[in-house]
Amino acid sequence: MHLGRALRTTALAAALAVPGAIVAGAPAAQATARSCHWADKGDSGVVRVQDGNGSQLTAGRIHQQFDYCGNSRARFVWDGWFRTHAHPGITGAWVQVLDLGDDGRGRDSGEYGSLSGPEVTTNPISVHSWGDNEWYGVANMRITHGNGSTARCTAYSSTWDYHYGRPTEGAQPGTCGY
After folding, report:
1. Residue 149: strand, helix, or coil
2. What's the pTM value of the predicted model, to 2 decimals?
3. Which of 4, 92, 74 is nearest to 38 (CA)?
């Protein structure tokens, strides 16, 4: 890779030294914005909550994503039925989404309620920030109940190693009790 950059630099320098020389277009150093698109990497972590009747409901899933332009993000997608229907004993549901590197640093979405929209994402971050190559998504769920109690739980996506292109740890579900 460094040899190719050195050859392009040498060719450009030589062309500039020769009057009237034409330099053919070199490939772009990075992909254009049009080729960037988000795709899930590895497995998603499921967040389940227990309602006032004791039923286990899927609240949503946390994903680790890559945009094919060198960036990762975490994306939580609310379950459509959970988000748009009332549930016995549940008065509110909020999620905080994190995209964390293997050293624990990364991006934080802040906390959003289920009525805020169908998904919550973090801002993108380079997969090589701080020398990290492994990234994973975290969903911190907070559920409020009609009896005044609050339940919290956490789910994790797979940890994805962007250097080797494979998962290094599996997804972990989280369940918020009543």
Report:
1. coil
2. 0.79
3. 74
